[in-house]
């Protein structure tokens, strides 16, 4: 396992994955996942990437993903939100390339820098 201090790319990817999961749950079930669910998602994602992070960072990224997902849902029509959620979920597979997801990944980098979470 890699050190607790995740680099910017890992933080962006984790924020992206958490946001994708929140949007998928919202559009599939009509409700937002709670922070405990997001923390579990983060733990599984980190494990699959052979990374670890401290609980404080996971909480901060979880909170930021919640805000980002709500912002996206509030600014997109339902159809656009479903499409965005789908593109984000598909883009969790490294073999899937999506211009929409690439733009959102860059937004994740901007949000991390804005919150001083870029590492």
Concise overview:
By secondary structure, the protein is mostly helical. It has one domain. Helix content is 73%, strand content 0%.
Written overview of the protein:
The protein has 119 residues and is an all-alpha fold. The chain has one domain (8-114). Helix content is 73%, strand content 0%. It has 5 helices and no strands. The chain has helices at residues 8-29, 35-48, 55-75, 78-91, 99-114. Helix 1 (8-29) packs across helix 3 (55-75). It is globular.
Describe the structure using short key phrases.
119 residues, mainly alpha, 5 helices, globular
Write the layout of secondary structure elements.
Blueprint: H1 8-29, H2 35-48, H3 55-75, H4 78-91, H5 99-114
Helix pairs in contact: 1-2, 1-3, 1-4, 1-5, 2-3
Strand content: under 5%
- Tally of domains: 1
- The oligomeric state is single chain
Determine the N-to-C terminus distance: 18 Å
Please work out how many helical segments DSSP would assign: 5
Low-pLDDT regions = none
Order of helices and strands: HHHHH
The structure class reads: mainly alpha
What is the residue-mean pLDDT, rounded to a whole number? 92
What is the total tally of β strands? Answer: 0
Output the radius of gyration. 13 Å
Main sheet overview: none
Query: What does the overall shape look like?
Result: globular
State the share of residues found in helices, binned by percent.
over 70%
